[in-house]
Amino acid sequence: MNIKHLFKKLMFGLLIFMVNSVTFLSTASAKDAYKTYTQDGYGQYVETQAGYNAIGTLDMGDIKLNGPGDLKIGPEDNLYIADTGNRRILIMSLSGELIAEVTHEELMYPSGIAVSPEGKIFVADERASKVFVFDENHQIESVFERPETPSFGKNATFYPLKLAIDSRENIYVISRGNNNGLIMLNADVPGSFLGYFAPNTARESLLTKFRKVIFTDDQRDRMLSTVPNSITNLSIDQQNLVYTVTTGKNVNESLKKMNMGGRNLLDPNYLEYPSALTMGNYDNIYVLSENGYIYEYSSEGNLLFLFSGPDVGYQREGLTSRGSAIAVDDHDRVYVLDQQKGAIHLFEKTEFADKLHQALDLYRDGKYTESKALWEEILALNSQFDFANLGLAEAFYRENNYDDALTFLENPKPKKVILTLFGKFVMFG
C-alpha cells in the first residue's frame, strides 16, 4: 500500500470518527443527526451545507420486510423490493401502497433485482443458483442456470447475488465466490454465456513484486497467488456504461465506471464498505455503504456530498443500521433500504443541492454560459465548495475566456488539474 493511499484511508477513518461522534447527541433533532461533507481541491473532507434532509421512513402499513436485499424504482415510478427473507418481490407505490406481490415456488433467497422499462423483473437467487425472469404479468418467462460452456470455467461458481441489465436486456451477474468478473448472459438465449466483463485486478505488495523479480521460476510457482476482490454490487446507466463497487482490503478502485471495453474511467478512490449504488438524474452517481454513509458523485467521480451514517442503537432518523440498496426518483428523493431494520429511509434534497443539480444539468447539456450564474450562487452560499470553482472554470474555458478559467482553476488549488489550452497541456498544482 503506497503512502498516498494509506494517508487517504487514515483521513477517511478520522472523518468516520467525526461523523460517528454526532450520533451520540441523544437530544439533537433529526436535522442534526448527521453532518454533510464534500471534498476540497486537496481531496480533504470539509463540512458543507446539507444536501439532503432526512424526512423519515416509508410508511408501508402492515407490510413487514424480512432482511430485504435490494430496491429499484421501475416503470410508473413504482418501488420494486427484494424481500429476501420472505422469498418474494414486492411492488409498491412511492407512497408505500402495495401494488403487487410476486412469488414463485422456486424462489428461495431473492437478493438482487433489476427491472426493465416494460416491467419485466430479473431476480438473482443465490440459494437457488438461478436467475429468474418474470414477464410484465409476473409470470416466469425464463430461468438462467449455471452456464455449461467451458469458457465459464470448470470451477467457477454460479450463486447469483446481484444483477443489472443493459438496454438489450443482457444480464450482468455477480456470483458469490466468483472473482472472474461480471457474468454476462444473453437475453435471447437463456443460459447462453457471453463472457466475463471487467474483472477486478489483484493488488500486489511491493514485497511480493520484489520477490517475483528475484525468485527462480520454481520459487515463483510455489508462491501463493493473489486473488482479486469480488465485485460487491453494480449498476448500468442509460448509455450502457457499467458501474461497480468493491469492498475489501487493498482496494484502490472502490467505485468504477467502465466503458464498453471494461476500462475504468474514474480516478483511484477508496470507500469504506460500499454495498450499493445507483444513477441520478444528472449523470451523477450515488453510493451507499453498508454502515449507512451516502456518497453523491459527479459523472467524473468528484465527490459532491457525503452524508447520513450508521445508527448505533439510538434509532435516529436518517441513520441506517445496515444499508443494502439505494434508489433515486425523478424528483431526486433518495430511498435507502435498511436490511437490518426492514425499513426504507427517505431523504429530500435541499435548495443547495437543487442548485447544484441544476448546474450539473446545464453542464451536461452543454449550456456552460447558462450554468455560470448557478455556480456563482453556490459559491455565494459556500465559498469552500470547490467543485463550483471547477464548474465556473469549465464554463469560462468553453467560452475561450482562458484568463478567468485560470483564475477559477487556481481557487480550488487542485493537486492536479489538466486542461488543453492553446493546444498544450497545462498543469496546475
Write the layout of secondary structure elements.
Layout (H helix, E strand, L loop, with lengths): L2 H20 L14 E3 L5 E3 L4 E6 L12 E4 L5 E5 L4 E5 L5 E5 L7 E6 L5 E5 L4 E5 L5 E5 L15 E6 L5 E5 L6 E4 L7 E5 L8 H9 L2 H6 L10 E4 L5 E4 L9 E4 L15 E6 L5 E5 L3 E5 L5 E6 L14 E6 L5 E5 L4 E7 L1 H14 L3 H14 L4 H13 L3 H9 L6 E5 L2 E5 L1
Antiparallel strand pairs: 1-2, 3-25, 4-5, 5-6, 6-7, 8-9, 9-10, 10-11, 12-13, 13-14, 14-15, 16-17, 17-18, 19-20, 20-21, 21-22, 23-24, 24-25, 26-27
Helix pairs in contact: 4-5, 5-6, 6-7
Describe this structure in words.
This protein is of the alpha+beta class and 429 residues long. 20% of the residues lie in helices and 31% in strands. The protein is built from seven helices and 27 strands. It starts with a helix and ends with a strand. The protein is globular. The C terminus is likely disordered.
Strand order of the largest sheet: 3-25-24-23
β-sheet strand percentage: 25-35%
DSSP helical segment count: 7
Structural class: alpha+beta
Low-confidence stretches: 6-30, 414-429
How many β-strands, per DSSP? 27
Oligomeric state as shown: single chain
Describe the main β-sheet briefly. Answer: 4 strands, antiparallel
Helix content: 10-25%
Could you tell me the mean pLDDT?
86
Principal-axes shape call: globular
